[in-house]
């Protein structure tokens, strides 16, 4: 038990440092694309066992590909479709242990096995999502969700 708790504490400290880093990167910059780009680069360096991280921005009732790190991706996703579109329509984080079991999953990268999507909400409106894929089943746990939601909350303060 001690090892599991120690691992959690270590991961929490790492995530707390990540939150400080993203805030320092974006607090004085007003450009949305620059901030989203730096955020994806930071997450790509920080998170282990992922194969894609990026943002989709809501434009006329569909998500349009924004800054990302990874292989080329789907450019447009309709609200309510796939994991990203579901995060928008439900206005809540989607943490999917096995994307192949998710009804209507949109496979941009066949290597992706699990996914977490956190909606960006500014002034009560969903403006996009943070999307992270992993080539491993059940890669994301409750701690990841908690801190990725905090990461997005930092981003929302500066958008």
Quick summary of this structure?
The protein has 159 residues and is α+β, with helices and mostly antiparallel strands. The protein has helices at 2-26, 32-46, 82-90, 142-158, and strands at 52-59, 62-70, 76-78, 94-96, 114-122, 125-134.
Q: What key attributes describe this structure?
A:
159 residues, alpha+beta, six-stranded antiparallel β-sheet
**Biggest sheet: strand arrangement:** 3-2-1-6-5-4
What profile does the largest beta sheet have? Answer: 6 strands, antiparallel
Please state the overall shape, judged from the principal axes of the Cα atoms.
globular
The portion of residues assigned to helices is: 40-55%
Distance between the termini: 41 Å
| Alpha carbon gyration radius | 15 Å
Low-confidence stretches: none
Task: Estimate what percentage of residues fall within beta strands.
Answer: 25-35%
Counting DSSP H or I runs of 4 or more residues, the number of helices is 4
Structural class of the secondary elements?
A: alpha+beta
What is the average per-residue confidence, as pLDDT, rounded to a whole number?
94
Order of helices and strands: HHEEEHEEEH
Task: List how many beta strands DSSP finds.
Answer: 6
How would you characterize this protein structure?
By secondary structure, this protein is of the alpha+beta class. It contains four helices and six strands. The model has no long low-confidence stretch (mean pLDDT 94).
Topology:
Elements: H1 2-26, H2 32-46, E1 52-59, E2 62-70, E3 76-78, H3 82-90, E4 94-96, E5 114-122, E6 125-134, H4 142-158
Antiparallel strand pairs: 1-2, 1-6, 2-3, 4-5, 5-6
